[in-house]
């Protein structure tokens, strides 16, 4: 069977649903794993995901659903991971078959706690997957806009550029234009950091700072991102490219950004727990903030915006006072 073979999506949320829509624009049939059998049952009754992006209708004849992760892995050649990063381990722990012979596409824009490993590094260390058999999806690509078929430009990163081009080919359609890169680690790190900075942007929004201040905040955030990524993964890259800057901008400014929404609630005075309960969705940046903080104990990069977010989320620091320090001493 030619690459990428039979494709499976692992995850039942918003992003997984958007990815299924993209895949079915190219593939005749996909496999789809969801943890909860009742979600699958409701999906089959209604023809759409009952919980996420419910306006997107699917032809059920083109989908094989699974609630058993081992079975879907055995029946597939390429696995697209689209579960929140804090829960990837619990899904993979259920496996009773190997995945080292599969091609893995990580669409997870997060980091694996408590090891503080990028998804590709985690899969290499714990599941023996060769680096050339993994790709990631980066760049500005909100699931809600994909559902609306608004023009979207993801980046497919893989050490094997020929495979990156092949994966980009199954993503491309009339509203998706995928580019390729070999900067897997850099784009993964940027995807973690942009969620942290989106929380900072949301905090400032909740505190009623205006667009002028937000522009300065985000300008400083991209400089922070560049410092951190270049130290952790020192290869030549253009931080202005959409896989880095574009993803940061859309996550900091879009109304679809759950990390920005989460931060805005914190800025308005919600406790972290209250904000998480009311959102009913995972803000990856909450977990990413702690992971980046712990990673930086090794690298000691100057990242004051990310440090502020950590203090607010994990040390109960005042958001208002913290932003005041940023605006008077750091931002420029």
Automatic annotation (TrEMBL):
Residue span(s) of domain Glycerol-3-phosphate dehydrogenase NAD-dependent C-terminal: 183-323
Record PROSITE patterns: NAD_G3PDH (PS00957)
UniProt superkingdom: Bacteria
One Pfam family from the record: NAD_Gly3P_dh_N
SUPFAM superfamilies recorded: 6-phosphogluconate dehydrogenase C-terminal domain-like (SSF48179), NAD(P)-binding Rossmann-fold domains (SSF51735)
Molecular function terms, GO-annotated: glycerol-3-phosphate dehydrogenase (NAD+) activity; glycerol-3-phosphate dehydrogenase (NADP+) activity; NAD binding
Catalytic residues as annotated in Swiss-Prot or TrEMBL: 194 (proton acceptor)
Recorded metabolic or biological pathway in which this protein acts: Membrane lipid metabolism; glycerophospholipid metabolism
Keywords: Cytoplasm, Lipid biosynthesis, Lipid metabolism, NAD, NADP, Nucleotide-binding, Oxidoreductase, Phospholipid biosynthesis, Phospholipid metabolism
Compartment(s) where it occurs, according to its Swiss-Prot or TrEMBL record: Cytoplasm
EC number of the protein: 1.1.1.94
Binding-site positions, substrate: 109, 258-259
Binding site for NAD(+): 87, 143, 258
Binding site residues for NADPH: 14-15, 35-36, 52, 109, 143, 258, 282, 284
Catalytic activity: sn-glycerol 3-phosphate + NADP(+) = dihydroxyacetone phosphate + NADPH + H(+); sn-glycerol 3-phosphate + NAD(+) = dihydroxyacetone phosphate + NADH + H(+)
Enzyme class: oxidoreductase
Binding site for sn-glycerol 3-phosphate: 109, 139, 194, 247, 257-259
Domain (Glycerol-3-phosphate dehydrogenase NAD-dependent N-terminal) ranges: 6-162
Listed GO biological process terms: carbohydrate metabolic process; glycerol-3-phosphate biosynthetic process; glycerol-3-phosphate catabolic process; glycerophospholipid metabolic process; phospholipid biosynthetic process
Gene Ontology CC: cytosol
Function: Catalyzes the reduction of the glycolytic intermediate dihydroxyacetone phosphate (DHAP) to sn-glycerol 3-phosphate (G3P), the key precursor for phospholipid synthesis.
Similarity-based family: Belongs to the NAD-dependent glycerol-3-phosphate dehydrogenase family.
Name of the molecule in the record: Glycerol-3-phosphate dehydrogenase [NAD(P)+]
Natural source organism: Dysgonomonas gadei ATCC BAA-286
